[in-house]
Amino acid sequence: MTGRGCGGALRIDALRREFGSFTALEGLELDVPAGEFVALLGPSGCGKSTALNLLAGLLDPTTGTISLDGRRIDRLPPEQRGIAMVFQNYALFPHLTVADNIAFGLRMRGCPKPERAERVRRALDLVRLRAQADRYPRQLSGGQQQRVAIARAVVVEPRLVLMDEPLSNLDASLRLDLRTEIRALHQQLSLTTIYVTHDQTEALSLADRLVVLRDGAVQQVGTPAEVYERPANAFVAGFVGYRNSLPGTLTGGVFDAGDLVLRVGGYGTDRPAPGPAVAMIRPEDLLLVREPAAGSGNEVPLDVRVCEYQGRGFAIEGSGPGGQLLHCRSDRSFRPGERAVAVVAPDRVRLFARPQTETPTPDRALPVDGQPS
Amino acid sequence: MSASGPSGDHLLRWRDRARRRGVTPTVWLVVPGALFMVVFFVYPVCYGVGLSFQGTQGWSSAYRDFFADRLVNNHGSRRSILITLELALAASVVNVVLAVPIAYRMRGRVRAKRALIAVVLVPMTLGTVFVASAMKEFLGPSGWLNRALLGIGAIEQPLPLVGNVTGVLLSLVFTGLPFAFLLMVGYTSGIDPGLDKAAAVCGARPAQRFWLVTFPLLLPGMTITFCLSFVLAFGVFPSATLVGNDAGPTRVLSKVAYTEYSYGHYPTASAAAVVMAVVQLAVLGLVLSARGLLHRGPTTGGKG
């Protein structure tokens, strides 16, 4: 809390954890420089919480190493790792006041009383809870409780802060406020942070770097912009908002999905080799109109099924050629059953080599609140 | 509502008012229980208390006889109070102290938890008389425990385990522990396991986690368990008669009252019972008022 640069450098090497015959996490490699904010992103059961518990020492790795500032910590009990953690359900000590909760870690570290009081006071100021210092956790709102938990974590100036879906239990507007607050706090304190979430917007807005996980395996590591704009595969694309996925075949500049043929182009080098492929389109790039302007892009006829008002526009779900479910946007409303045309520019269609064994399931990416992974 | 007429309207408002005060038709379900309590508890208690004031020499004579050791066989009643208190307090402290670690270990997922709990509960189903008679055989001077210890040369004289306070205490612990354990399991499994993790990540060693987080959260439950164990142990006399020696060292209050009744000395018997109740209430009052100083809130760290 004394300024910038008190976070440690984290190195994770070939970290693996099995539960019986099930591999929860396979071969996680990650190098986190001091002060970086890394988000582990993925759907339920992707191994992100396992990774966090391994870092915290609440689970033992099957193989692999974790080092913090060059020191191996993977065999140390949690209390000797010099880390701090924020939990999804806050995990505040219900029998201690807010101030005592925050002071707990300092007490355990043998911090002398006057210094303790001073640091607790500064931590309370940091999360703007000075007035609530003598209250008990049950007397606070969810957002306040989580701010206490954050203060409890940062007050010890840990080398590493772990956050396990800290916003999942909060309601929408509070989540947004606290998200900004966490970002501001990180900018202020530069604590090395590993943040676990299943919510892509949370990960994109908070993190310096994202690690997208699926079934225990890393899918992509990159800055939020890289992951959002150039997802490495169909799964990552589905997770960062490419809701429409069409299996088909790529030949030259044309993607053939059977009942529907799309001209593709633009992304250039990212395009896979001709052959079986998956075309993915963000709903925002698929615009529904009644009368398409000439030469505006690929035109896909659509039977409207559901039209939702979303303030700035409408989100429309309908069936395209061959009954393919498509999600698109429009600035005007459509009636269910109405026939319209969805337009997508060739350079907004993202193509991925089709995985041989599995089909992407982008709908898993829909953030489901409060679901632990 | 205007269509239902004035009388219907009136009825509806009456029902609404009753409902708003929490009086719903389900209130009638309380009646059998309440009636039972009045007939079989409230009235007998009042009757007994009244009886204790009808001694042969004035309203307080039964109590004077009781405290001046003028009961059957001139037995010391003040001493009986002490014996009973000592036994009940010792038994309930031992029960709680033994039950907490077992229950703490059994929180969360434990292999064969159900089977273990079933085994622990068996003594409870046996009843005090059975346990006490069995113990008398098992722990007596010629019981196999003493014979075995004599056989291997660990002792030279048989251990005096029955016919005294030790025997009664052992019997009270044997029958009371399952009960204390069962209560404590509820309390230990009610504590959010995340708190232990949070404390660990905050830098607390296992012992610190127990004493600074788990223990304070268990204290209210331990208090209640202590109180119930105490009440159970205070009134029991089969063990005091069978394993103990109710002519002297383990002459508990309930035995005193029983002897008086069996001699037809109803006022003094009632007085003994009233003294018992007062002593118990005093102990419970002390313990529960101390409890007011403890944390009484939730034992989880938040919602979820």
UniProtKB/TrEMBL annotation, chain B:
Cell compartments where the protein resides: Cell membrane
Major localisation: membrane
Protein name: ABC transporter permease subunit
UniProt lineage: Bacteria, Bacillati, Actinomycetota, Actinomycetes, Micromonosporales
PROSITE patterns: ABC_TM1
Family recorded in the similarity comment: Belongs to the binding-protein-dependent transport system permease family. CysTW subfamily.
All residue ranges annotated as the ABC transmembrane type-1 domain in the record: 81-287
Xref: SUPFAM superfamilies: MetI-like
